[in-house]
Design goal:
single chain, about 325 residues, alpha+beta, Phosphorylase Kinase, domain 1, Transferase(Phosphotransferase), domain 1, 2 domains, five-stranded antiparallel β-sheet, 9 helices, about 40% helix, about 10% strand
Amino acid sequence: MTDLTQPLEANKPFAALTPDCLLNAMDSVGLHGDGRLLALNSYENRVYQVGMEEGAPRVVKVYRPGRWSDAAILEEHAFLQELADAELPVVPPLPLGAGRTLHYFDGFRFAVFPRQGGWAPELTDASTLERMGRLLGRVHAVGALRPYQHRPTLDVGHFGVDSRDCVSACPLMPGEMLEPYRSISGMALDKIAAIFQRAGDVQTLRLHGDCYPGNILWADDGPHLVDFDDSRMGPAIQDLWMLLSGDRAERNRQLMDLMAGYEDFYEFDVREIQLIEALRTLRMMHYAAWLARRWDDPAFPLAFPWFDTPRYWQQHLIELREQVAAMDEPPLWSC
C-alpha cells in the first residue's frame, strides 16, 4: 500500500526517477509494468507511457517537486472528473487503491492516466474550428460553475511582473541587454495593464490554461483535450486565442468559426477579444521566465541550448518590441 505519510522533497531531482523507481511506484498502486517505458514530451513534469503485464499501457505523470501543492493538483483532478462526468472528451486520472488519484513514492508524487491516442488537428478548417469551439464552450460552461480555491489566476502580476523580475535577475542574459530589456518589458507591462483596465471586469473561470494545438488529440470520435497541468482561473479567451494563426483576416475568420460552435454552449463576452495580444505578450514573458527558473534541471540545457546565447536574447527583445506595437493595433473584429 502507498505510504501517504512519507515526506516529499521539494528539490528532489528528477535524476532520481530511475526506471526501477518508476516501476516500483506503479507496483505500489497495484499496476505491474512489463518493463517497456516510453518517455513522452514533457519538461515541466516527467511523463511516461508504461507497458502493462495485463491490459493496455498506462500514462504516468510524475509531478515536478515543489511546483503545485497537493490541494492544487487534486483540484485539477476534480475538474477533469467533472468534465468527464459531463461526457466531455478529457482524460481524468485513474482512481487507484482507496480511490485516490494522487500517489506518493520515494519522495515523488504521481498520477496514472489511461492512454489517449490521436493526431494533430487541422485548425485552419472551418468545421474543425467550429467543433473545437463547441468543445471549449462546454468546457467553460462547467468551468464557470465554481472557482478554483488553490490554483492561481492568470494575471499581470504573476505572468508579467514576476516574469520580468525573474528574467531581469537571470545571469544568462548578456549584461548589455539588461537595460533594454527592462525598458521594453516595462513598456509592455504598462500596455498590458491598460488593456486589462479597458476590457473591464471580465469573468474568470476554470480554464485548460495551455490550449495550444499540441494539447489537442484528434481521434476517430473527434477532439480530446489533454494535459490540464497549467489549468487555472482566467478569461475564456485564453483557451481560444492560441488556436488562431495566420494574418489578421485569417485569424478573424478562425475566431468566427470558433464562436459559431462556442456560443451554442456558453456566452462569450466580446470585450475579451481585446485581451488577445496582451495575453500573447504575457505568455512570451512567462515562457522566458520559465526557462530561467528551470535552468538548473539538466534536461533544460539539453533541450533548449539556444537559451543562453546572445541571439536568443536579441530575438526576445525584438519580439517584445513587436508585441508593444501589436497591442496598439485595433483588436480582431474591429473595423
